[in-house]
Write a structure and sequence with these properties.
The complex is a heterodimer of chains A (271) and B (266). Chain A is 83% helix and 0% strand. With 271 residues, chain A is mostly helical. Chain A is globular and about 65 Å long. Chain B is of the alpha/beta class and 266 residues long. Chain B contains 9 helices and 10 strands. Chain B has helices at residues 54-62, 84-92, 109-113, 115-119, 125-138, 155-168, 185-202, 213-219, 246-253, and strands spanning 16-25, 28-38, 43-47, 69-74, 77-78, 94-97, 173-177, 205-210, 222-227, 230-236. In chain B, helix 5 crosses helix 6 (155-168) and helix 6 (155-168) runs parallel beside helix 7 (185-202). The chains are: A mainly alpha (271), B alpha/beta (266). At the A-B interface, helix 4 and helix 5 of A face helix 2, strand 6 and helix 4 of B.
Chain lengths: 271, 266
């Protein structure tokens, strides 16, 4: 006896579920492929003239200089919190002396690059997506193409290059201020002497700890600017579309920063 | 005046020739075999209602959208057969006035006006300021406007700056996308006058898309009407409103009843 109209068998529901899952996976793969091609084209323009040095410098200053206050404050307070938390935790094992080591390793290897990346994602990723998205919906990108200018080369390449080079500089500052935050709490609240705290900080710090953090920072800078530019460049649908692009840029950058942080850490530190 | 090419049969090669141009976005067919010739040194006005395919036609010619099929020739050269470099060379000879101006917010007016010249390294930044002042004067704007940001300009001034940007590199083909939309009738007439002056001075071929009939009569030598992705009429712009073609006449007179039925949801 045939099934009544509208009713679906368990097999149909399972097939629908599988098809939905398949569409979802295909959508992700399609997006990943499109972003990869977008990134490849942007990178290829780094090596082909004309070069837009003025736009690169503008983006570099926007990222490195104007993000400095927010990154600096984040790193400083994180260093302070880290010192407090590790002290109270390590006190249970009579290992309070390791506070300085924990602060410096956490900041240089992980928290400096990740927090700077997330802060820049919120500030710069959103700004790039909104600016380029607005240019898209107001025909300014089409106008660029009619004015003998490759829009990718003009809008995307300088921003991505600037982000990749600027974030390591920000992380250097974040590292210094994070350690300073820990030192301030260590010496003013936890009873460490200044000399002992700094000696413990630098005795255990290896150059690879810092370099690995800077490599991560460059990768996060690339991701943030790439996603900001991509979401803006492909936006549509007027003001609402630009709003969606801005949100997507921040969310996608943040997730990719955390995911790539794991991958990079595994590559650089796993044995 | 641009040189006219002559075909083997003695006829003059059109500046722009479209043959069988088709474009669909998903299931929606926007262009359904557009055939159109645009004569060198003449001003062609393409009429049509909203969503009829005017803007898509323009974007296909400009290379902003790739057509699904059909050919686009400029000076007898099929654009689809050109290398990237050759295509860029063709685009270098084209100017475009966008409907909303599409001025770059982040740049002052003078840099907007001379953007193409600066991009092509044909002019230094210092010289660009003087050139911008010269071109702004051609569209009736003072040199001091050059230092303003586009956001500080009125709609009419933005159109003028957009026009200045379109003509600054002295192109031999200029496209105008709804040049008078959003302007009051007097400002619309002023912009039309400026367009005519500029096109005449440059000896350029002009292609305008509009649904402003007064503007179409003022700026057009020839006119064509596009409806449902096809050219349904072409003739002299001066005859608009009395063409004998029921569709064009209905459109020109703005009549509700006629062969063109608006698809309204009941």
């Amino acid at each position: 006896m045939p099934a009544p109209m509208g009713a679906s068998s368990p097999l149909d529901r399972a097939l629908d579920l599988t098809a939905g899952l398949g569409r979802f996976v295909l959508g992700i793969l399609r997006s990943a492929g499109a972003v990869t091609l977008f990134a490849a084209e942007a990178i290829s323009h780094i090596f082909r003239p004309p070069f837009y040095g003025r736009l690169f410098l503008k983006a570099f200053v926007e990222i490195a200089w104007f993000s400095l206050p927010v990154v600096a404050m984040t790193a400083f307070f994180t260093g302070m919190v880290l010192a407090l938390q590790s002290y109270t935790g390590f006190a249970r094992f009579n290992a309070e002396g390791a506070v300085a080591n924990v602060v410096v390793l956490s900041i240089t290897r992980e928290l400096g690059p990740v927090l700077a990346g997330l802060m820049v994602a919120g500030r710069i990723g959103a700004a790039f997506a909104a600016e380029i998205g607005t240019m898209r919906v107001t025909d300014q990108i089409d106008a660029l193409n009619t004015l003998s200018t490759n829009a990718m080369k003009y809008l995307v390449t300088p921003r991505i290059l600037a982000g990749t080079l600027a974030l390591p500089l920000l992380v250097v500052v974040a590292n210094i201020l994070g350690v300073m935050g820990g030192w301030l709490i260590g010496t003013q609240q936890l009873g460490f002497s200044s000399g002992a705290y700094l000696k413990a900080t630098f005795d255990f710090l290896q150059s690879w700890d810092v370099i690995s953090g800077l490599i991560k920072a460059a990768a996060f800078g690339f991701i943030v600017t790439l996603m900001g530019c991509w979401c803006g460049y492909t936006s549509g649908g007027g003001a609402q579309g630009v709003g969606r692009a801005t949100t997507s840029a921040v969310v996608a950058s943040s997730i990719l920063i955390l995911a790539s942080d794991y991958v990079l850490t595994a590559m650089m530190f796993s044995r | 005046m641009s040189a006219k090419l002559v075909e083997a049969n003695g006829a003059t090669t059109p500046k722009i020739r479209l043959r069988g141009l088709c474009k669909a976005f998903g299931p929606k067919v926007v262009l359904d075999g557009v055939d159109l010739d645009i004569r060198a040194g003449h001003s062609m006005v393409i009429l049509g209602g909203s969503g009829s395919g005017k803007s898509v036609t323009l974007k296909c010619i400009l290379g902003l959208i790739a057509p699904d099929s059909g050919t686009i020739e400029i000076d007898g050269r099929d654009l689809s057969r050109l290398s990237r470099r050759e295509r860029e060379e063709v685009n270098d000879r084209i100017g475009m006035l966008f409907q909303n101006g599409a001025l770059f917010d982040s740049l002052p007016v003078w840099e907007n006006v001379c953007f193409k010249l600066l991009a092509q390294r044909r002019i230094t930044r210092r010289a660009a300021r003087d050139k911008a002042a010269e071109v702004l004067a051609q569209v009736g704007l003072a040199a001091s406007v050059g230092d303003l940001s586009p956001s500080e300009l009125s709609g009419g001034m933005q159109k003028r700056v957009g026009l200045a940007r379109a003509i600054a590199a002295e192109p031999d083909i200029i496209f105008f996308d709804e040049p008078t939309t959003g302007l009051d009738p007097i400002m619309g007439a002023v912009i039309d006058g400026l367009i005519l002056d500029c096109v005449k001075r440059l000896g350029a071929t002009a292609v305008s898309i509009t649904h402003d009939m007064a503007s179409a009569r003022r700026i057009g030598d020839d006119a064509a009407m596009i409806h449902k992705g096809r050219i349904v009429w072409r003739g002299a712009a001066a005859t608009l409103g009395d063409t004998g073609n029921a569709m064009v006449d209905q459109f020109a007179r703005g009549e509700r009843e006629g062969p063109i039925q608006m698809e309204l949801r009941k």
